[in-house]
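BUG: 3D viewer hangs when loading the predicted structure for this chain

Environment: internal workstation, default settings.
Expected: structure renders.
Actual: progress bar stalls at 90%.

Input used:
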Amino acid sequence: MNYVLVTGASGDIGEACVKQLAKKGYSVYCHYFRNEQKIKSLLSDLILKYPKQDFFALQADLSSPKSVEQITKDMFQLHAIIFAHGDTVYKLLSDTTPDEMTHLWHTHVYNPIRLCQLCQPKLTQHSHSQIVFISSVYGLIGSSMEVMYSTVKGAQIAFVKSYAKEVASMNLTINAIAPGAVDTNMNTLWSKEEKQSLLLDIPLNRLAQPKEVASLVSYLLSEDASYITGSTIPLTGGWSV
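Structure tokens produced before the viewer hung:
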């Protein structure tokens, strides 16, 4: 039985990944920060539906380096990591505070990289293992009003390219998915007018659904994707990158 860590499992994309991977037969470590009740409900449903698999809740603030150390200690087997956690700061760079910049850097870059570093021995003891970052199209094209978010998402993509070369001989693949606009709670910041304007730029004329991101994650963890590494795959509905 394969074990996967999904960070941000209480978020829309993270939850969709957990459900998709559980359906595929994975046992799942479900990381969350604040939304304990949602995780308890999710695990209760999964345990009932898949009684032969294991499901665990791991609480941690992934903006804190100490929490990364704890997560590593709480896992006994690990075959894959899906980084689906994160948040953003929606304001001009000139208005972004040093604390906000540090928070985004630690949350999206430093601590995920540190987690990869700490988990490498667990991952590479298997014949095949995988890491997938849910990055963002803004890591490829940038965005005004989310300059720091775009920067850290771009850093994730650079890390994927570099680390994939370092661990390829260990049969550890690492890739990133760069979604465009996804229909999640994170996008409640947008006004109706902003959403309508965005849809005009998307040829498919709709937002992505979390389960569509999860389906691509599931594929990247499959044997069919064993030759894909160091790649960033846009999932944008035709939105130009």
